[in-house]
Design a protein that fits this description.
38% of the residues lie in helices and 20% in strands. The chain has 132 residues and is of the alpha+beta class.
Length: 132
């Protein structure tokens, strides 16, 4: 399913966002397009939390982000506005939430995917593996 050019480059996994912003508040997920595409092409994937949103690391950052959004507001009644308000509320509500990432591999490469996840969690995120 990947292009011939991509297959020649021997790409093992793809690291990509799991959502358009930080993790949504519990039971508010309305936007799963970032993950569903991989289900459609039957590629294994795993979503995991990364460190919290660095661009919203305090009250001043949240205020700056709110001001930026006020300059370019979402269209009232638009799908984007609905998703945003239902999932996040405001930039201040995102303070401290982790960013959702996903790792995707080619079809039938589930074990390679999980090995790559362990490597990323231990080396890049400093987490110890709970797997045997």
């Amino acid at each position: 399913m990947l292009s011939t050019k991509t297959k020649r480059k021997k790409i093992d996994v793809i690291l990509c966002p799991a959502s358009p912003g930080p993790a949504p508040l519990r039971e508010t997920t309305k936007y799963w397009h970032y993950t569903s595409i991989w289900n459609l092409v039957d590629f294994p994937g795993v979503a995991f939390p990364a460190p919290k949103a660095a661009w919203c690391d305090g009250k001043q950052d949240a205020a700056d982000a709110e001001a930026m959004l006020a300059q370019r507001p979402l269209a009232p009644g638009s799908k984007e506005e609905y998703v945003w308000t239902q999932s996040y509320g405001s930039y201040a509500d995102m303070h401290g939430l982790p960013i959702g990432l996903q790792l995707v591999a080619q079809r039938y490469q589930d074990e390679k995917l999980l090995r790559a996840l362990e490597l990323i969690e231990s080396e890049a995120l400093g987490r110890s593996s709970s797997r045997p």
